[in-house]
């Protein structure tokens, strides 16, 4: 198509879709709906990802960071020409700062999505294809993909619109240990900000769980490390996959996990599962920080069964 005609064609194509109300949908039926691990961060979600990724039925790529942004972009532009819409969605992933951890070239995927029949086009199908493509590119064989990005805790309303049948696993950890871990790892500047972040994440997750109880499961970090086999068996049952005993200790698959070896704050994930980090943050607090945390998140800690 000549360069002078292409822009006009795109405008006409978009106007035609607007006039006839043919906006590409967010959701679509999938052969297997995904699952999302949500939580505050520093709650053990990377350890849980390591365990689940050891199951041959599951694939969980590195953190994506942009699912909420992609959803909003798609909604604003879903009457755009399909080729351009695919480019917009995938480029948003590719140009985010951490995409190098995915370690893949998406050109073949782009052409595959361009050729989809009209009736199969949706944001859910693009995202499903992206996550499956990553698993295939890293040599994985799986039936179910998931996502472990704590930022998605603030995008739950968007995720459920894109994937109405998705399942959600809320990983809950003692807010004092979480806040102390954020600060000690240099991921947040002060205990108060970290504690408030934990509280907001927990309250958002629990509110969402009340809305979609059949699609949500809460797992406590303390249970995961103290009784990993029992906890993983329950989680695998929730996800409708078989439990594999090697999920607890296996490290043979970590080279496919992209970001696991890239950051020092993930280093403990490669250690054997143990309870040594339970209460570690609490034991390091100053009296000032104890009073600060008690004042701002004490009620939430108590409500969740964590000591003051």
Summarize this structure as a short list of keywords or feature phrases.
308 residues; alpha/beta; Rossmann fold; 48% helix
CATH class: Alpha Beta
The main pleated sheet reads as:
5 strands, parallel
For the largest sheet, list the strands in their spatial order: 2-3-1-4-5
> What's the average pLDDT?
92
- Provide the CATH architecture: 3-Layer(aba) Sandwich
The CATH topology assignment is Rossmann fold
Structural class: alpha/beta
Q: Count up the helices.
A: 13
Describe the secondary-structure layout.
Elements: H1 5-19, E1 35-39, H2 45-53, E2 58-59, H3 67-77, H4 82-94, H5 107-114, H6 123-137, E3 144-148, H7 156-162, E4 167-172, H8 175-184, H9 191-211, E5 216-220, H10 221-226, H11 228-239, H12 280-283, H13 287-303
Parallel strand pairs: 1-3, 1-4, 2-3, 4-5
Report what the structure shows.
With 308 residues, the protein is α/β, with parallel strands linked by helices. The protein has a single domain, classed as Rossmann fold. It is built from 13 helices and five strands. It has helices spanning 5-19, 45-53, 67-77, 82-94, 107-114, 123-137, 156-162, 175-184, 191-211, 221-226, 228-239, 280-283, 287-303, and strands at 35-39, 58-59, 144-148, 167-172, 216-220. A five-stranded parallel sheet has the order 2-3-1-4-5, with helices on both faces. It is globular.
């Amino acid at each position: 198509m000549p360069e002078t005609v292409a822009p006009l064609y795109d405008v006409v194509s978009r106007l035609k879709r607007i006039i006839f109300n043919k906006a590409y949908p967010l959701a679509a039926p999938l052969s297997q709906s995904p699952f999302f691990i949500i939580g505050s961060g520093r709650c053990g979600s990377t350890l849980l990802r390591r365990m689940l990724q050891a199951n041959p039925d599951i694939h969980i790529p590195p953190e994506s960071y942009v699912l909420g942004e992609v959803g909003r972009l798609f909604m604003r532009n879903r009457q755009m020409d399909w080729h351009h819409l695919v480019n917009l969605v995938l480029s948003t992933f590719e140009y985010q700062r951490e995409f190098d951890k995915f370690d893949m070239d998406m050109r073949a995927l782009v052409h595959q999505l361009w050729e989809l029949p009209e009736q199969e086009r949706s944001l859910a199908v693009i995202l499903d294809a992206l996550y499956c493509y990553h698993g295939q590119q890293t040599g994985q064989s799986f039936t179910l993909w998931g996502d472990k990005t704590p930022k998605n805790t603030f995008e739950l309303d968007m995720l459920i619109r894109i994937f109405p049948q998705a399942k959600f696993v809320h990983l809950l950890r003692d807010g004092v240990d979480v806040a102390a871990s954020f600060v000690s790892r240099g991921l947040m500047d002060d205990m108060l900000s970290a504690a408030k972040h934990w509280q907001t994440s927990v309250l958002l997750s629990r509110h969402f769980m009340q809305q979609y109880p059949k699609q949500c499961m809460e797992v406590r970090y303390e249970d995961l490390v103290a009784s990993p086999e029992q906890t993983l068996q329950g989680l695998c049952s929730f996800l409708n996959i078989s439990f594999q005993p090697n999920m607890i200790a296996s490290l043979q698959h970590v080279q496919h996990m992209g970001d696991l070896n890239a950051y020092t704050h993930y280093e403990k994930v490669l250690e054997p599962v143990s309870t040594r980090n339970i209460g570690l943050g609490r034991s390091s607090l100053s009296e000032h920080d104890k009073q600060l945390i008690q004042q701002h998140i004490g009620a939430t800690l108590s409500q969740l069964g964590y000591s003051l």
